[in-house]
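User: Write out your own:

AI:
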Amino acid sequence: MAPACQRHAPVPRAERGRNQGPGGRGLTRALGASLLLVAVGLAGPLIHFALKASSEACAGSPPPEQVCRNATRHLERRLTWAQQALRDAEAQAASCNQTALGLEHALSQEKEQSRRAGELQEAMDTLTQELREAEAEAERLRKAQRSPGGGSAASAGFSCGPGPGTAAALLLLGLGALRA
């Protein structure tokens, strides 16, 4: 039986390359150099296409600084618009407040005029009542004067009660008070 592990005598270095078949070590080197050239040849276009693809992707979109500036400008425009809308709303509120104050003042004047008209109406009613009473008194005195033996004062032409001139004067006073 042959030993499981045969030990061969060491081969000198100079002879090592000779026993490797046709081409030997030179073929291995040539094959390695060829693979290296192919790898370098393919790596160049691969890097070129990768850079071109990334630059096209970046060329289609603006740089981040530009995106930030655009967003800032947009937000500034919206802020300006909101501030203008606020100023307009404040101006409208001030106008509404002025209108409300004007209406309140007009209402208070109207109430005062209504109150005063009521007072004048009461005064006019009182004066009208007094005028009626004076006219009734005057009529009574005229009747007493026309009747025979109506009294010495009546026959002398003196009148004790208010006459038609007094009634007219009272009416004019009442109308003058209504105008004021």
Observations:
- The first helix runs from residue 13 to 16.
- The mean pLDDT is 78.
- DSSP finds five helices and no strands in the chain.
